[in-house]
Amino acid sequence: MATVVLAPNAFKGSLGAPAAAEALAAGWRSVRPADVLVPLPVADGGDGTLDAVEASGGGVRHLLDVPGPAGGTVTGPWLALPDGAALVELAAAGGLALADRSGPPDPARAALASTLGFGRAVRAAIEAGSDEVLLAVGGSASNDGGAGFLTALGARLLDAAGEPVPPGNAGLAVLHRVDVRGLVPLPVRGARILTDVTNPLLGPDGAAAVFGPQKGAGPVDLPVLERNLARLAEVLAGALPVDPCAAGAGAAGGLAFGAAAWGATIVDGAAEVARRVGLPGALVGADAVVTGEGRYDRQTTAGKAPERVRLLALAAGVAPLLVAGSIDAPTDGWRAAVALADLAGSASAAIGSPARFLEQAGARLAAEYGV
């Protein structure tokens, strides 16, 4: 009999991490029914972070209506945690998936999308008495450098006439000064920005160059987005000084930069979530851990949740097993690896029935690589 921890990340666009853990458990149990299975979904600050932390048994979910990233209104959740902190997920309040519902990505949307709704959710969590805020910023639709976020928290971003600038990156073109007298202070224990990237705000590895295309911006649009983010950094320097070259400042279209200007600290999202859900303790005495996500590639190995799980497993002497929708990077560091696309015959087939093929993957690992 073995103890197996099931710690998948969300399979983006197809299945959340808690449901993925359930499917893996069903498959594993069909082959090795006597094993002890410990479902423990994980995340790295992107889509599904709130779900993963909530599934670990802690927190009360609150819902409120906030401005959507591309207009309209969306339901922005935040999670009140047992220790008094709050977790707010950008993907759930201002994410690319939400924006995509209003149409395919396009240059105009990339320039206009705002982090205002996310900021409103953060402010609600603070006003409810949270003494710390965790900002899960992956999966954003915006490139506004956190301008909307700061506005929601009480900062006034003004043009030369003293009027509020328009929303989104485009509004930063006319930014003249920032009034921070009404800015909501950090909660008592501060705020942390959970991210899985180390990009700076500006430059060839910055928010516009790297993340702009994901949101619909074309080659001709990127210099404009870059110039507007540089304008934000220049104007903010006088009121809320923060280094635009800091590792991670470019995360979420520069939202991390704006949040850092507020005073939040940029941290490793995968490590923070692993600690929050109790993964290090769950690995003590375990024999194997199964983790994975929709696409395993070199970005995964650079700091996403499955790589964090693998490193924790190796440190604990636990066999790391990988399941991914597709595998596009070497898997030398894993005891075993299964791609859902191989089981299904194609990536599209796997995406169409993720639970079915995750169950098959769990059975395959149990049969061939069970410990």
Describe this structure in words.
- This protein has 371 residues and is α/β, with parallel strands linked by helices.
- The protein folds into 2 domains: 3-40 and 279-369, Rossmann fold, CATH 3.40.50.10350; 49-270, Glycerate kinase, domain 2, CATH 3.90.1510.10.
- The protein contains 18 helices and 13 strands.
- The strands form 3 sheets. It has a 6-stranded mixed sheet, sandwiched between helices. It has a 5-stranded parallel sheet with strand order 2-1-11-12-13.
- It starts with a strand and ends with a helix.
- The mean pLDDT is 93.
Shape: globular
What average pLDDT do the residues reach?
93
The biggest sheet, with number of strands, parallel, antiparallel or mixed sense and barrel status, is: 6 strands, mixed
CATH classification class of the largest domain: Alpha Beta
Rounded radius of gyration (Å): 21 Å
The CATH architecture classification of the largest domain is Alpha-Beta Complex
Query: How many beta-strand segments?
Result: 13
Strand order of the largest sheet: 3-4-5-6-9-10
The portion of residues forming beta strands comes to: 15-25%
- The assigned structural class equals alpha/beta
> What share of the residues lie within helices?
25-40%
